[in-house]
Amino acid sequence: MLNPQLTKNGELQHLLSIEGLPKSIVNHILDTASSFVSISDREVKKVPLMRGKSVFNLFFENSTRTRTTFEIASKRLSADVINLNIQASSASKGESLLDTIDNLSAMHADMFVVRHAQSGAPYLIAKHLIDTKQSHVHVVNAGDGRHAHPTQGLLDMYTIRHYKKDFTNLTVAIVGDILHSRVARSDIHALTTLGVPEIRAIAPHTLLPGALEQMGVRVFTNMDEGLKGVDVIIMLRLQSERMSGALLPSAQEYFKSYGLTPERLALAHPDAIVMHPGPMNRGVEIDSAVADGPQAVILPQVTFGIAVRMAVMSILAGGHA
Amino acid sequence: MKLHIQHGRLVDPANGIDAVRDVFIDGGVIAGVGAAPDGFQADRVIDATGLVVAPGLVDLSARLREPGYEFKATLESEMRAAVQGGVTSLVCPPDTDPVLDEPGLVEMLKHRARNLLQAHVHPLGALTMGLKGEALTEMAELTEAGCIGFSQAEVPIEDTNVLLRALQYANTFGYTVWLRPQDAHIGAGGIAHAGPLASRLGLSGVPVMAETIALHTIFELVRATGARVHLCRMSSAAGLDLVRAAKKEGLPVTCDVGVHHLHMTDADIGFFDSNARLTPPLRSQRDRDAIRAGLLDGTVDAVCSDHTPVDDDEKLLPFGEASPGATGLELLLSLMLKWADDQHDPSALTKALAKVGIDAARVAGLPAGDLAVGRAADVVLFDPAARWVVNGAALASQGKHTPFLGYELAGQVRVTIVAGRVAYER
Question: Which of residues 193-232 of B touch A (CB under 8 A)?
Fold first, then answer.
């Protein structure tokens, strides 16, 4: 199967994963996003790039933050947004994923923003749209299982570029539950694509996927060693169901070994920035003193996230030549 | 019905024949090879010029989905698929609904299959009631009803003590226990080979040690009990190393592999192609190469189609929700020919046909895969050069899903003869 997210001409048809995206497309998205950042500061926070287009937010898994930012991004592009919380509707009535898609396509959807608990679900939708010759409909992956969360990866890159300018001299550490994290995977692909020379993963063995080194990552299990001299720290959220059991004994012990405290942050480069995809567990993966401290760029990430999502959607809709 | 198959290239691995020989069939058995028996008057002469004449294929794992899963496939459709694929004997696992743990169910299945006058069906009985891994089934009764061995299908026994008792009991009567080596916990819920691809795609993994840990346990129990165990669908290089060592040690074990694992790796999952979702999962290239080599050195006794018809509704789902399995009965022959072709050795065809013929029959204890005079006339005639494209329309099976969809394969069955009767021809 060909990479379903690019057209035959190598243009972006769907955004499914950062893996396999050419650097030029990644940079184009980031450049486009920077032109949208200022819109949010204007009195009238709208541009007409997607006027008359219908964006369906299909969330098969709970999310408030991501869904909201996609909704805001769509509205600022003047698109019509329809939010569907599928958990509460069709799926519970036994309708299959592709039946849902066909029904919504019949309502003249132009874009699906999809979150699903299963890795690869947006690929199934994209392939179905190709098979049914609906090339005018676009899919944006808003997080699939453990696989990818490409708009989060892109907004993380936007944030890093904003503060660090150049990717080619950076050391970036990703800390926490990498095994279950789609954000980590998207960040790793994006950082690799943009030429970051050193990507580190810091976690206990139980939270590291196998063969991670083959993704171009240096693995550390000791956080103090892993943080030495890094320019960017990306903290990951630890899901509460994983805090006690066979993966980890307790949240307290996790914080002791892998919580980002001011003391640990001091091991990083003095200008290091601290990122987190949210929502944070204060006192589990990050100390409040760091989360609210001067090196944290967690709230700007959220702001940039809207601009990046506007960029992705407008490029897919073809409204931003 | 007296049949005369003339001018064909007879490849009969059991008797070391690879030559142009005529075959004569009378009364359901082979009446003559090379020369006609005295006074033989054929009712029908089949011209096999340019075709290979071989023993009908013996498939050690084909799910017919009856009883219980008729929406996925029916006995009619799958038995048609078998003869269209040149398969004349097949072994079916007990994971139907209800599970094959009652003699009555086995008798009914055998009866239904017999009435279709197609391939011979040899059920495996459940090793434990409901495959629950708790209470033993009535193995002697089930054997009387037609079971040729006992299996847990895809459900590993959690309680090792039950497995020990099952092997002891089976061995009391000399029954073979068929086990797919898979730890009950490690890799449970996994959907792809635990390796770089699964990590990248965010798919939960089934590590190789899920297979090797189970093998260590099984071999230790075989040492203790002396029970004969057939290991189903080995998937890894490390697992085959353990089997090789066990055989060298003299343990009474045999093993098979699924035909998909002979050609494909986890990389064939590509962008989450659910057609490549199989159990056990497709593994790394190293594992695949070891499986291919295992056929040559004899570590692998047989290759099965691992035929598992799955309907569209259960495949057109996200990878992790899709049902595992692929249709296989009609691909088995072509995929074995492909392996043989890759060996660049003229004797490889004999080897390939043995793995789905006499060697498989020996594993299962079946009187099949042998075209000597007096043997059952289960014969396949195929054109080794004819090419066909794998697609839904070409398949008689109700299962249309296979990772080989769209592939062009060589080897097309022209005639399948079961017990001296033409069961399929094109």
Answer: 194-196, 198-205, 207
- Beta-bridge partners for B55: B379
The pLDDT-based confidence of B65 (bands split at 50, 70, 90) is: confident
Total residue length of chain B? 426
Inter-chain touch B313–A97, beta carbons under 8 Å = no
Which residues of chain A are within 8 Å of residue B194 when distances are taken between CB atoms?
210
Q: Measured at the alpha carbon of residue B342, what is the angle toward residues B337 and B345, in degrees to the nearest 5?
A: 90
Q: Cα dihedral sign for B372, B373, B374, B380?
A: positive
Residue indicated by tokens 């190789």: B208
Q: Given this model, what pLDDT does residue A90 score?
A: 55
Q: pTM for the complete prediction? A: 0.94
For residue A235, the surrounding DSSP H or E stretch is strand A232-235
- Judge: A1–B271 Cβ closer than 8 Å, yes or no: yes
The total of other beta-carbon atoms located within 10 Å of residue B165's CB is 17
Q: Which pair of structure tokens corresponds to residue A160?
A: 């890093």
User: What does the alpha-carbon distance between residue B316 and residue B173 come to, in Å, rounded to a whole number?
Assistant: 45
Which ranges of chain A would DSSP assign to H, the alpha helix? 23-37, 65-76, 97-106, 121-131, 150-164, 182-193, 223-227, 251-258, 262-265, 288-291, 298-317
Which residue from B minimizes the CA distance to A149?
B202
CA A160/CA A113 separation, integer angstroms: 25
Rounded to an integer, what distance in angstroms lies between the CA atom of residue B339 and that of residue A268? 55
Predicted local confidence at residue B190, as pLDDT: 96
* Rounded Cα gap, residues A27 and A281, in angstroms: 32
According to DSSP, residue A245 is labeled S
Q: What is the pLDDT of residues B2-29, one digit of tens each?
A: 999 999 999 999 999 999 999 999 999 9
User: Residue B289: beta bridge partners?
Assistant: none
Q: b vs e for A9-23, b when ≥16 Cβ sit within 10 Å of the residue's Cβ?
A: eeebbbbbbbbebee
> Helix/strand/coil (H, E, C) string of chain B?
CEEEEECCEEEEHHHCEEEECCEEEECCEEEEECCCCCCCCCCEEEECCCCEEEECEEECCECCCCCCCCCCCCHHHHHHHHHHCCEEEEEECCCCCCCCCCHHHHHHHHHHHHHCCCCEEEECEECEHHHCCCCECCHHHHHHHCCCCEECCCCCCCCHHHHHHHHHHHHHHCCEEEECCCCCCCCCCCCEECCHHHHHHCCCEECCHHHHHHHHHHHHHHHHHCCEEEECCCCCHHHHHHHHHHHHHCCCEEEEEEHHHHCCCHHHHCCCCHHHCCCCCCCCHHHHHHHHHHHHHCCCCEEECCECCCCHHHHCCCCCCCCCCECCCCCHHHHHHHHHHHCCCCCHHHHHHHHCCHHHHHHHCCCCCCCCCCCECCEEEEEEEEEEECCHHHCCCCCCCCCCCCCEEEEEEEEEEECCEEEEEC
Cα gap B200→B219, rounded to integer Å: 34
B359 belongs to the catalytic site: no
Whether residue A214 and residue B320 make contact (CB cut-off 8 A), yes or no, is no
Q: Closest Cα to residue B227, out of B179, B182, B168?
A: B168
pLDDT at A95: 79
- Respond yes or no on whether the N-terminal peptide bond of residue A279 is cis (omega within 30° of 0): yes
- Contact criterion met (CB < 8 Å) for A211 and B202: no
What does residue A199 show for φ and ψ, rounded to 5 degrees?
-115, 125
pLDDT value of position B341: 97
What is the identity of the amino acid at B107? E
Q: Which residues from chain A sit within 8 angstroms of residue B195, using beta carbons?
A: 210-211
Can you tell me the ipTM of this complex? Answer: 0.93
Query: CA-CA-CA-CA torsion for B385, B345, B288, B409, nearest 10 degrees?
Result: 0
Please state whether beta strands B9-12 and B17-20 pair in parallel, antiparallel, or not at all (unpaired): antiparallel
Dihedral angle sign, alpha carbons of residues A278, A188, B203, B179: negative
Handedness of CA B180, B283, B246, B146 (dihedral sign): positive
